[in-house]
Each structure stands twice: as structure tokens, then as C-alpha cells.
Amino acid sequence: MSGAAPPRRVRLTLEYDGSGFLGWQRQPSGERTVQATLEEAFARLPGEHGSVLAAGRTDAGVHALAMVAHADTSSAIPDEKLRLALNAHLPRDVAVVRLETCAPGFEAQFHCLYRRYLYRLRVMRDDPRGLAVNRDRLLPVFRHLDLPAMQAATRYLVGRHDFATFATQETRTTVRTVHLCELREERGEIRLHIAGDGFLRNMVRTIVGTLLWVGKGKLAPEDMPGLLAARDRRKAGHNVGPQGLYFVEAGYEPWDPERSEAAVASLVV
């Protein structure tokens, strides 16, 4: 940056509805993405601005309630006024909920120690209310599920494992540490809360699809260790839709379950 004002780095906390985006990452062919939309908003403001880099790169249709990102800017606008100015130039499906000047070396992605996601399901067999208005917000399920069996299955996924069975076309190492994996009944829904030091491509959505197999009796909870050991994607459930998946926390301190629960307790869903 060569502007008159020295550049500073800002940390942003973002909320977005992923329904209308082709994921987070800017695309060379110009498709609508969250990153490109934010950078366009920055470009409408005085000064020079760098790329907006996030803690995670969500796929098309995936939402975020508290995505952390950073960007460099030469703007001298104070933090809160800069947040308001950005929101004035952003569409209604993405918002900056917090903005603060941070250390110049802060990296939203590389300094992140864990990420937490939420997946929302609702059994609608006997009560279809909300099926239309929530079509882009959660996964409808049209049969009853064995929830205790599904909850028992999640316990096998906590810890450090090779998650190749739950990854799609993954070229990175498939060993990950999952700190939290719980299915909870909340607000009339079934919600998977999952946190780990990193997630493979489609890993959370495949875990949900596999848990649905357990809930429908196709798999037993005790089958989960065998699935992990197999390292065979064909043995796990299908990738469920992206509409129920939310990025809810980026952690920059070592995993602490109480601190994480407090961080997500006030989120809007």
C-alpha cells in the first residue's frame, strides 16, 4: 500500500447467509462469493485495502454466524465508523458485526487453533411447519430417528483420528483432532455441535449423513470405529446439503469447552 496514511490491520467478525454465494473464496471467473463481496465494499471506501482473509473457507450454501477475517487498510476511519461504512456498502446477506484494529501480524487462518461448526436438522414428519421458510436454513428429515443411537455414535468421533472415511477428494493429511462432537435437542431441532483443529472437505456434512444412517438403523453406533479404520469414503453416509451448516466460532486460544460454549451461547439461531 502506498497511501498517505500508514496501513493497519483490522480483525472482522462476519455474519452471512451463504444461500446466495458460491462459497467464501474469490473466483477467477467472477462468481458471487463472500470474499469478493467484502473486498468490493472496501474498494468503495477511501484509501487502499488488501485482501480479506478468513479463518475458514466455507462452501457454497454454507452460512456463518461468527467468521473471523482480517484485512489491511490505509483508511484512517475509526473502527466502529469503518464497520458501519462497510455495512452501508454490503448487501443484506453479509454483515460485519465487529471490527477492531489488531496486531499487524495477526492471521485469521494461520493463528486459528480450532474451528467450531453447527449443523441444524429438524424432523418434519409430523409437523411440517417451517418447511418452506427454513428451506435454506436447515435440513428437513421426513422420518423418525433413533436419537440416542446417533448420540452414542458421536462419541467415537471425539479425539485424534484419521478421518479419511469422511472426506471427499482430500489431498491434505486426513488426521484431525475433534474436541467436541455432540448431537443436542435444541429449539425443536436436532443440532450437531462439532469443533476441531481443522476439518476436511465435506467432513462435517458426511458425518451428519453417517449419523442419519445410524438414526435410521442402517448402521449401529459400534460401527463407527470400523468406519474410521477403513479409510474408505464409500462406507460412510452421503454428504447432506449445505443449508444446515454454520461456521460459529474461530478459536485463538487452546480449546476450552466452557469458553467455547459461552462464545456460541448468544448467537442468533
Descriptive key words:
Alpha-Beta Plaits; ten-stranded mixed beta sheet; single chain; 22% helix; alpha+beta; 269 residues; 28% strand
Give the SSE map.
Elements (H helix, E strand, L loop, with lengths): L7 E9 L17 H10 L9 E2 L8 E11 L5 H11 L4 E9 L11 E10 L15 E3 L5 H8 L4 E4 L12 E12 L2 E8 L6 H13 L8 H7 L14 E7 L5 H9 L4
Parallel strand pairs: 3-10, 5-6
Antiparallel strand pairs: 1-3, 1-4, 2-3, 5-9, 5-10, 7-8, 8-9
Helix pairs in contact: 1-2, 3-4
Task: Give a written overview of the molecule.
The chain is α+β, with helices and mostly antiparallel strands. It folds into 2 domains: 8-102, Pseudouridine synthase I, catalytic domain, N-terminal subdomain (Alpha-Beta Plaits, 2-Layer Sandwich); 114-255, Alpha-Beta Plaits. The chain has helices spanning 34-43, 79-89, 147-154, 203-215, 224-230, 257-265; strands at residues 8-16, 53-54, 63-73, 94-102, 114-123, 139-141, 159-162, 175-186, 189-196, 245-251. Strands 1, 2, 3, 4, 5, 6, 7, 8, 9 and 10 form a 10-stranded mixed β-sheet that branches. Strand 2 and strand 3 (63-73) form a beta hairpin.
Mean pLDDT level: 96
**Largest sheet descriptor:** 10 strands, mixed
What letter string, H or E per element, gives the SSE order? EHEEHEEEHEEEHHEH
The CATH architecture of the largest domain: 2-Layer Sandwich
